[in-house]
């Protein structure tokens, strides 16, 4: 009996010791078991270029015409998922905001929170402008709520204004680590938050002009972009792990599926716009810039049209998201609407074009000649049209943003309707929402669009 007890005791001791030993040797003191706040922010930043790099976005703004599978560009009634944004960047950023133990070793905690707020606002703004009402106040709660309600776009806008104000006010001196966008420079983050607020305010020009004007001027007073050096740019690398989306589509996949549209070329070629040489390549058959009519289904030869520019699909090509030229176009429009008394609309307009050319070409060469063209010269009697058309030219390769501005202003007013298919007014919700979140989905569709989840329903600011 004593031998039995001794054997059991030794077995227990050895097994327990082995368990403790295994735990000890399998812990890597140099590998954190939880991502830091700035690491989560950096991961969210990796999703930024995806907001702009999308064939569907280019089709919505009619920058690119499909040369291969034309049907995909003819505005089919189809669902578009927003799940990736909730499961990726928004979840990361919400984790930062919900954390009670952010480390100051990565920079002031207040600054980490401020950056997370700005980025979260930017992602949510893009989502609500594309889909309309979306899950917001009940979203990202995990197992506490798998079926979040859809908040109205009006509520979301007002709450995002508050979030951006809070972010601006809470920043302190000191940089943050792991910032792959601004390298921790909080002065640039402050300008970015206020610039996003400026653009959001302008978006409300046709639905709530008083709020639009007040928020616009408050953002100006708080401090917005003052040069191209402030631009929110995602810089890709000449590396397969972080390469430009269009490189993977054009070069890596050997596809010549996208040509400049006829509308874009006809807007730029007659006035010798220096940006055209960046936007596209000359047609191989003629050496001239030739646009393809959007939605054209017959007689398409890739030799005959100007395809997507080689600078645009370079492996390390940058993606421009929020830019100084947009700020100047916004100031020009605000001056034309008599929202502001500082500055002249025509001057802002010309400065915007110059900033755009410098952004895209790296030089101001050709600015004076372009501004001298009668088709480009500012006309105060048609100010909104002039500003909107040139903003459309500038926003090339961020089709979703250009599409939002088109929905708001109606310019350019010559977008085509291939086979009678008009440009959509929104994206349709994910199909899975009918099963995953049926009651809230149905309520949102009924509230906004009378029960039909159509791509031709209008979002709140586009009524």
UniProtKB/TrEMBL annotation:
InterPro entries: SusD-like_2, TPR-like_helical_dom_sf. SUPFAM superfamilies: TPR-like. PROSITE patterns: PROKAR_LIPOPROTEIN. Gene3D superfamilies: 1.25.40.390. This is Starch-binding associating with outer membrane. It comes from Salegentibacter flavus.
């Amino acid at each position: 009996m004593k031998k039995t007890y001794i054997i059991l005791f030794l077995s227990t001791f050895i097994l327990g010791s082995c368990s403790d030993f295994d735990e000890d040797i399998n812990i890597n003191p140099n590998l954190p078991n939880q991502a830091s706040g700035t690491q989560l922010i950096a991961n969210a930043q990796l999703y930024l270029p995806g907001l702009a790099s999308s064939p569907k976005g280019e089709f919505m703004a009619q920058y690119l015409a499909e040369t291969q599978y034309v049907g995909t560009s003819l505005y089919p009634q189809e669902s578009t998922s927003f799940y990736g944004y909730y499961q990726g960047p928004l979840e990361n950023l919400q984790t930062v905001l919900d954390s009670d133990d952010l480390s100051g070793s990565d920079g002031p905690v207040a600054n980490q929170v401020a950056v997370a707020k700005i980025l979260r606002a930017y992602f949510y703004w893009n989502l609500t402008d594309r889909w309309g009402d979306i899950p917001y106040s009940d979203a990202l709660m995990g197992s506490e709520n798998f079926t979040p309600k859809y908040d109205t776009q009006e509520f979301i806008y007002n709450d995002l204004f508050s979030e951006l104000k809070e972010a601006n006010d809470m920043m302190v001196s000191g940089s943050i680590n792991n910032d792959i966008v601004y390298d921790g420079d909080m002065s640039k983050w402050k300008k970015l938050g206020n610039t996003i607020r400026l653009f959001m305010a302008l978006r409300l020009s046709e639905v709530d002009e008083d709020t639009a004007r007040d928020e616009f001027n408050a953002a100006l007073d708080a401090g917005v972009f003052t040069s191209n050096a402030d631009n929110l740019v995602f810089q890709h690398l000449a590396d397969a792990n972080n390469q430009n989306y269009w490189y993977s589509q054009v070069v890596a996949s050997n596809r010549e599926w996208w040509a400049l549209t006829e509308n874009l070329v006809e807007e730029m070629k007659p006035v010798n716009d220096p940006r055209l040489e960046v936007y596209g390549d000359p047609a191989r058959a003629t050496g001239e810039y030739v646009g393809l009519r959007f939605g054209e289904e017959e007689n398409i030869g890739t030799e005959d049209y100007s395809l997507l520019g080689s600078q645009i699909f370079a492996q390390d090509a940058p993606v421009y998201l929020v830019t100084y030229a947009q700020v100047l176009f916004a100031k020009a429009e605000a001056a034309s609407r008599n929202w502001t008394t500082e500055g002249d609309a025509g001057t802002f307009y010309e400065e915007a074009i110059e900033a755009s050319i410098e952004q895209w070409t790296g030089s101001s060469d050709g600015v004076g000649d372009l501004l001298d063209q009668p088709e480009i010269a500012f006309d105060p009697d048609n100010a909104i049209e002039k500003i909107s058309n040139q903003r459309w030219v500038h926003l090339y390769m961020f089709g979703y943003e250009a599409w939002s501005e088109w929905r708001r202003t109606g310019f350019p007013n010559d977008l085509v309707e291939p086979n009678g298919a008009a440009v959509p007014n929104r994206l349709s919700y994910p199909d899975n929402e009918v099963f995953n979140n049926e009651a809230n989905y149905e309520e949102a569709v009924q509230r906004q669009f009378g029960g039909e989840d159509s791509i031709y329903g209008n979002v709140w600011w586009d009524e």
